[in-house]
From TrEMBL:
PANTHER family given in the database record: CYTOCHROME C OXIDASE SUBUNIT 5C-2-RELATED, CYTOCHROME C OXIDASE SUBUNIT 5C-4-RELATED
Protein name: Cytochrome c oxidase subunit 5C
Homology family: Belongs to the cytochrome c oxidase subunit 5C family.
InterPro entries linked: COX5C
Alphabetic keyword roster: Membrane, Mitochondrion, Mitochondrion inner membrane, Transmembrane, Transmembrane helix
GO cellular component: mitochondrial inner membrane
Function: This protein is one of the nuclear-coded polypeptide chains of cytochrome c oxidase, the terminal oxidase in mitochondrial electron transport.
Spans through the membrane: 21-37
Cellular location(s): Mitochondrion inner membrane
Keyword Cell inner membrane attributed: no
Species: Jatropha curcas
Keyword Repeat: no
Length: 65
């Protein structure tokens, strides 16, 4: 009985290559999406700025007093 394997203890088989690939792709897509959302936000803010300039609602020229 001393040489019998205990139940409930799994044998470590090393990293799963397929799991690692899926995790890497998932993290890459998540980081890419966050980066893309950041650029979309900057693009939107720039477009709003130039739209306001065209409508003469704002100006970049400092007025003399």
């Amino acid at each position: 009985m001393g040489a019998a394997k205990k139940l409930g203890h799994g044998v470590y088989r090393g990293p799963s290559v397929l799991k690692e690939i899926v995790y890497g792709i998932s993290l890459g897509l998540a980081a890419g999406l966050l980066w893309k959302m950041h650029h979309w936000n900057n693009q939107r803010r720039t477009k709003e700025f130039y739209d306001l300039l065209e409508k003469d609602e704002i100006t970049v020229v400092v007025e003399d007093e």
